[in-house]
Amino acid sequence: MGKKLGLGFFSFASCEGCTILAMNLFNSRLPELRKKLEFVYINALQEKNTIREMDAAFVEGAIMNEEGKKKLEEIRKNASKLVVIGTCAAGGWPSNQRNFFTGEPKEEAGKRARELNQFEKVMLPKDFVKIDVTLTGCPISLEEFEKTLNSLLKEFKIK
Amino acid sequence: MHDGELTIESITKIEGHASLYLKAREGKIESVQLRVSENKRFFEQAAMGKNFKEIPNLFSRICGTCSAAHLLCAIEAVEKAFDFSPSAQTIQLRRLLMNASFIRDHGMHLYYFVLPDLFKKESILEFDGKLEKWLHDSMHVRDAGVKLADLVGGRSIHPTTPQIGGFSGIPEKKKIPQVVKQLKSERKKVIDLIAAFDKLEGVVCRETSYVALVNDSFDFISGEIVHSKGKCIPEENYLQYLDEFVIPYSTAEGIEFEEQAYMVGALSRINLNKKSLHKNTQRDAAFALKRFPSGCVFDNSLAQAIEMLHCFDNSIEILASANFRQESVPAIEPIEARGVGVLEAPRGTLYHGLHFDSKGTVQKANVIIPTAQNALNIEKDLKVYIEPLLEKKSKEEIALECEKLVRAYDPCMSCATHFLKVKWI
User: Fold this and answer.
1) What is the ipTM, given to two decimal places?
2) A18, A111, A118 member nearest B422 (Cβ)
3) How many CB atoms lie under 10 A from the CB of residue B122?
4) Which run of H or E residues covers position B403?
5) How far out from the chain centre does Cα B93 lie?
6) Which candidate, B401, B298, B413, places its Cα nearest to that of A61?
7) Alpha-carbon gap, residue B414 to A101, rounded angstroms
């Protein structure tokens, strides 16, 4: 069996719509893709998921706490390429909406965020680690995702 | 595992992130806690001060996979507040969009999350030999849902065409026969799925209550809120019956109905209203429908499979006789009012309550999602299901059984963490 492309899918603070959308690609290409891809980490699909060396990590969502930051840094250390997917991860909205609250909502959200050990401000993956590819959109476009996946297959010489 | 503590850090094959903590002593379960660990995104607070026109697209973002339900629920809340009744065509298009979302979403849960348990595989990616059929079925059936969503909603996640007052676009005429053809040809695969889940024997039966929006066409968007013990509530009165409480160990909230645990979702809907399913579904799923009403939570999967068939049949019927025309989307004048949207999302009854001032600015927003309603029931079922297994099974086996039971509820953790409660119990 030839080399497979090692992939991880990770979601932080988000609606997970981008990951769900990416999985729509399976509807047309699953038999082929499961021969070419090795899922190192994909919570929605398999029981055993550990962060270990992988060719590419797809990261959805904004970063809200220390635990998320550490996990993201661990992903970065292990992934040759890090792709952020969706507006939450690329620009923050709407997961970072509490950063812009004023008055009562700001007080309420701030209090609860502190109780949950969330950061004072919601942060982006790029605030902590180097990003190789950014796919924006809420949700991302499936065509863009497919293009990125195809170019990764090519780059890592997966046939 | 006679005594001890068990923690499942990350329950897999569910929508979002949750962990489970269980403590046993002398063969009894002392404590069971389903802990939602998603990050809070404060949608109810974000709605405050926003114009009514912004709310549907904002609330759609509470959850990607449930986005059509959140979008349509918020639209309904706005329309009810401002006393607007949508056209017959708009109602048909909304039904189609909900059907599409049920096919896609139940399809994800059943093929990707539950079937691997049924066939004792870790993942659908491992399905080979005879099981490969299910891999192919999952693709074709889910794709039919995606194509239907694209046709009606513009796209399957965060649809673009539904508006307050109507639709900004209608299904493209030449694409309708293609989608009907696809639905007709994949329909048989859903019957196979029903047959597969019909072979499962029910194991957890604990008396509980079931709540769903009930109507005579099984359409997910209209009707009255019915409780299995006989109560029937108009949509706008929901807050008189539902009590929200904070779960101290979780980032999600729990809901009780008149201070009692209850269940929402496919099992509730089929238990309360199977007579209203499409006639073709009643005919072709008759063998499985005999099992309902059922008190076994694992039958939620069978109920979902039956609902998928209903969504195929209802959509084929609507599309085959449709003659959609582009209707203008009327401008809606805001008034100071409260509006309530209630619909059946794939995972159960969804409530959006919105208060507006005379300019249509949100003064207060309240969102109650299915997983919060099921939270207490999940914990109660876990206790009943796991306690007899404590003597017989290892910690690892018990962890697996816990995950299977949580998965049967099809919880959605993205939805569960949209909002904020500051009072702790």
Assistant:
1) 0.95
2) A111
3) 14
4) helix B395-408
5) 19
6) B413
7) 21
Contact B341, B73 (CB under 8 A): yes
Chain A interface includes B39 (CB < 8 A): yes
Type of residue numbered B194: I
Amino acid at B187: R
| Strands in B311-415 per DSSP E | 337-345, 348-356, 362-368
CB nearest A15 (choices: B13, B146, B414): B414
Each residue's pLDDT expressed in tens, for chain A with a length of 159 residues: 679 999 999 999 999 999 999 999 999 999 999 999 999 999 888 888 899 999 999 999 999 999 999 999 999 999 999 999 999 999 999 999 999 999 999 998 898 888 888 999 999 999 999 999 999 999 999 999 999 999 999 999 998
Among all chains, which residue has been given the structure tokens 């109650």?
B368
Chain B interface test: which of A15, A32, A40, A67 (most B C-beta within 10 Å): A15
pLDDT tens sequence across B216-234: 999 999 999 999 999 899 9
CA-based nearest distance A146→chain B, Å: 16
Question: Do A16 and B64 meet the contact criterion of CB atoms below 8 Å apart?
Answer: yes
Q: Tell me the residues of chain B between 322 and 381 that have a Cβ less than 8 Å away from chain A.
A: none
Whether residue A124 contacts residue A91, with contact meaning beta carbons closer than 8 Å, is answered with yes
Residues in chain A: 159
Backbone φ and ψ of B59, nearest 5°: -70, -25
Check: pTM over 0.90? Answer yes or no.
yes
User: Following DSSP, what letter does each residue of A30-73 receive, concatenated?
Assistant: HHHHHHHEEEEEETTT-S------EEEEEEESBEEEHHHHHHHH
B-proximal residues of A, 74-133, CB under 8 Å: 94-95, 97-98, 101, 104-105, 108-109, 111-113, 116, 118
Q: Residue B12: list chain A partners with CB under 8 A.
A: 43-44, 46-47, 49
For B38, which residue in chain A has the nearest alpha carbon?
Answer: A13
Going B234 to B239 to B243 to B247, the CA torsion angle's sign is positive
